[in-house]
Give the backbone structure.
Amino acid sequence: MILNMTTTTQLKAAAEAAQDEADWDYDRGRQSHVAHYYGEYHGRWFHEGVAISFNREWNMTVCSMLAKHCPDLGEPDQKDNLGFDELWSWNKTRFSDGDNPERNPDDDWEE
């Protein structure tokens, strides 16, 4: 049996596809927050994973995009509450590129 492994690029694509479903927030002049690729995540109990965060009101949209872009990923190994947001993380070993995950674009800043 050949096991298909998900890439972190697929997880990022799922988060971006969910975000593309967002409504325009006229008060803020931008799209409402739906989902965001968090990237490498060090959670509780020595958890080393790759994560996405999302607005819980958009749970069904996020789940739909995960099923579409990451059909072999399965349930998250860790879930955290971030106030109005939820963070789901999967162990790095679930990804074919887990040793070198896709970077979070927000981490690419210069001092």
